[in-house]
Structure formats: structure tokens, C-alpha cells
């Protein structure tokens, strides 16, 4: 007979809390030993809360709590939207203070809207701005002729093809990105988002070499793909309501946006020397989401540096970035590719 697998950190933590509950007040007088599975996994604050007898973590289900105010219901809703284990949901519900607030996704969204409105006024066009002859002259857009200007691989997220492009990205950022940031923090979510953005522009520079790039779809698709993959891999543990229907709606929205991008890419350009923006950035974002993003979302309150998969995917991402950099330096010349003229 094979050996029984050791319990996970959440199970060990819950068992320790139950043991403290049975021992009563005497348990508080002597320092309990932390389970080995919890060492170097949970944060010190989490282990301290468990070992000091935070009995609420193993009490009735969070959904059974009554008399909650609006903010408490919102926090509970976010916990059930993003976390698959009950002990994690309770820990998040008990410890969340909204300080700091989810500032990263809100700030990025406000900047994107502000830049879009500024361009709309200056170009006198809000629908399909990308068809305006002066659109690509903006210094934020990624253009293959200007690929040596490194900031463009990131700043292109502040330029959108039109209000239809911006609208869907903003909705997905706020509905998915803000709850994820409330749970996992700005640092982790910013890491996934920015990694998706950079991977998106680099993927275009490798796979669709003559096309420009605009829009935040690389970062948005990284977050949404990671969230959907996390739900699928923890299907039985995820207790969010109507999860199958909501996954279907999210996939339909992503497919519509991707279909719009593909149509626009192959639609005859309003200024023939330069094609419309590429759709490959969406695929780069998805690749980041189901690798780096999924590892981040599956390890709530755990140190990423202790996860083997984390280092594997970091190595894969680093190799891709280095390959794309050398590709941009040498491939365009070696292939003698005819690029559109600079804007």
C-alpha cells in the first residue's frame, strides 16, 4: 500500500485551530508548534492568527453568517468569487481592511479612459479612432518602425482602437481585475497584468511583424484567462453562483473582442501603407494568464518563490522575452522585411 499524501497547509491549519478549541483556555498559555506543512508557506500573520486560536476559521460556513452589512457582503462575495477553499475565504473575510484599496486596476483604467477622451477630442473621432490618419503619430502606440523605442512595448495599452475596444476592456478590468486585486494585492495582479502587456507586444513583434499594437487586451486577457483557468481547475471548491453561466458570458465577451480585433486587422486599411493593429497581443496575454497568472491565483497567502511551477514559468517567460529581443534586433534585417513607413 502507498503512503497517504500529507495534508495541505489549509487542512493542517484548520486541524490546529480545532485542537486549540478542544483544549480551551489552557492552550493559550503555551506556545503551540506550527505544523511543518505551514512553514515557509503561509505568511507569519496567518500562522500567528491560526496558532493563537482564531476559532472563526473553523466555525460555520461563511455563507451562513447573518446580519452582515453591505461592505461585509461585498467582501464575502469577492471571497467566494476568487478563492476555492473555505478556510482561505474565512481568513480573507476576517482580515481584509480595504487598506490599501485596489488602486492599481482603478488607476490604470482611469488613465486609459483619460487618454482615450483626450485623443477623441484632438482627433474629433471616438468610434474606430484607429482609422484616423493621425492616430499612429501618437508616441504611445507600438509601431514596427519605431520598435527601438522600448517604452512603446508597454505604453500602447493607453491607446485604443475606438470606444467599442475601450469599453469591453474597461468592463473586464473592473469586473475581474478589481476583485482579484482585493484578494491577491496590487503587486501580484500588477505583475500578471504587466507581464501580459509586454508579452502581447513582443508576440506581435515576432508573429505579426508589420502591424502596430494598441489597447490593453494583453493585460486584460492575462487576468481573465488566469481567473477562468483557476475556476476550472478548482471547480468543486469554487462556490460562486452561476459559475458555468458566468464563464460562458466571459468567454463570449472575450471571443467577441478577439473577433473584432481579427476583423479589424484584415480589414482594408484607411492608410494602405500601414495595416490596422494586430490581434496577436490577445494571444500573448492568454499565454501569460494560463501560466504565470494561474500560479499566482492558486497560491493565496503563499510565497511564490516556494512553488516549483512558478520558477518554471518564470524561466519560460524570461526565455521568450530574450528570444523576442534578439528577434527584434536581427530578424527584421535578416528577413529583409518590407515594413510600413513610420507615421
Provide a descriptive summary of the structure in words.
- The chain has 343 residues and is mostly helical.
- It has a domain at 103-334: Rhomboid-like (Rhomboid-like fold).
- It has helices spanning 9-23, 44-51, 70-82, 86-95, 103-123, 152-155, 163-184, 186-207, 217-233, 243-266, 280-298, 308-334.
- It is globular.
Précis, in short:
By secondary structure, the chain is mainly alpha-helical. It has helices spanning 9-23, 44-51, 70-82, 86-95, 103-123, 152-155, 163-184, 186-207, 217-233, 243-266, 280-298, 308-334.
- Quick one: how many beta strands? 0
Q: Termini separation (Å)?
A: 70 Å
Q: Give the CATH class of the domain at 103-334.
A: Mainly Alpha
Multimeric state: single chain
- In sequence order, what are the helices and strands, one letter per element? HHHHHHHHHHHH
Low-confidence stretches at least 5 residues in length (pLDDT < 50)? 1-13, 15-41, 50-58
Helical element count?
12
Kindly identify the CATH topology of the domain at 103-334. Answer: Rhomboid-like fold
Radius of gyration: 23 Å
CATH architecture of the domain at 103-334: Up-down Bundle
Task: Give the proportion of residues in helices.
Answer: 55-70%
Globally, the shape reads: globular
Subcellular location: Membrane
Biased composition (Basic and acidic residues): 21-31
EC number: 3.4.21.105
Pfam family, one: Rhomboid
Question: What tags apply to this protein structure?
Answer:
343 residues; mainly alpha; Rhomboid-like fold; 12 helices; 59% helix; globular; disordered N terminus
Question: How do the helices and strands line up, and which of them pair or pack?
Answer:
Blueprint lengths: L8 H15 L20 H8 L18 H13 L3 H10 L7 H21 L28 H4 L7 H22 L1 H22 L9 H17 L9 H24 L13 H19 L9 H27 L9
Helix pairs in contact: 3-4, 3-7, 5-7, 7-8, 7-9, 8-9, 8-11, 8-12, 9-10, 9-11, 11-12
Protein name: rhomboid protease
Subcellular location: Membrane
Catalytic activity: Cleaves type-1 transmembrane domains using a catalytic dyad composed of serine and histidine that are contributed by different transmembrane domains
Amino acid at each position: 500500500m502507498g503512503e497517504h499524501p500529507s495534508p495541505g497547509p489549509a487542512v493542517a491549519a484548520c486541524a490546529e485551530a480545532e485542537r486549540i478549541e478542544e483544549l480551551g483556555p489552557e492552550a493559550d498559555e503555551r506556545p503551540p508548534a506550527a505544523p511543518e506543512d505551514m512553514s515557509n508557506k503561509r505568511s507569519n500573520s496567518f500562522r500567528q492568527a491560526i496558532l493563537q486560536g482564531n476559532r472563526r476559521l473553523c466555525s460555520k460556513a461563511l455563507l451562513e453568517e447573518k446580519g452582515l452589512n453591505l461592505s461585509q457582503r461585498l467582501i464575502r462575495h469577492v471571497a467566494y468569487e476568487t478563492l476555492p477553499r473555505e478556510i482561505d475565504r474565512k481568513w480573507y473575510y476576517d482580515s481584509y481592511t480595504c487598506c490599501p484599496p485596489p488602486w492599481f486596476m482603478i488607476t490604470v483604467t482611469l488613465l486609459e479612459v483619460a487618454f482615450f477622451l483626450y485623443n477623441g477630442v484632438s482627433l474629433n473621432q471616438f468610434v474606430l479612432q484607429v482609422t484616423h490618419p493621425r492616430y499612429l503619430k501618437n508616441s504611445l502606440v507600438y509601431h514596427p518602425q519605431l520598435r527601438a523605442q522600448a517604452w512603446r512595448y508597454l505604453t500602447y495599452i493607453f491607446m485604443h482602437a475606438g470606444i467599442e475596444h475601450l469599453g469591453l476592456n474597461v468592463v473586464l478590468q473592473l469586473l475581474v481585475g478589481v476583485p482579484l486585486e482585493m484578494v491577491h494585492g496590487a503587486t501580484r495582479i500588477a505583475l500578471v497584468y504587466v507581464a501580459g502587456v509586454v508579452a502581447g507586444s513582443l508576440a506581435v513583434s515576432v508573429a505579426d511583424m508589420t502591424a502596430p499594437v494598441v489597447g490593453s487586451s494583453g493585460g486584460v486577457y492575462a487576468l481573465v484567462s488566469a481567473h477562468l483557468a483557476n475556476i476550472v481547475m478548482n471547480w468543486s471548491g469554487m462556490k460562486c453562483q452561476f459559475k458555468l453561466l458566468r464563464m460562458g458570458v466571459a468567454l463570449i465577451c472575450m471571443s467577441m473582442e478577439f473577433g473584432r480585433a481579427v476583423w479589424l486587422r484584415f480589414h482594408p486599411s484607411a492608410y494602405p501603407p500601414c495595416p490596422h493593429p494586430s490581434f496577436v497581443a490577445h494571444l500573448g496575454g492568454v499565454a501569460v494568464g494560463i501560466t504565470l497568472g494561474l500560479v499566482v491565483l492558486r497560491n493565496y497567502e503563499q510565497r511564490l518563490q516556494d512553488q516549483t511551477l512558478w520558477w518554471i514559468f518564470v524561466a519560460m517567460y524570461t526565455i521568450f522575452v530574450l528570444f523576442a529581443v534578439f528577434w527584434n534586433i536581427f530578424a527584421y534585417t535578416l528577413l529583409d522585411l518590407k515594413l510600413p513607413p513610420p507615421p
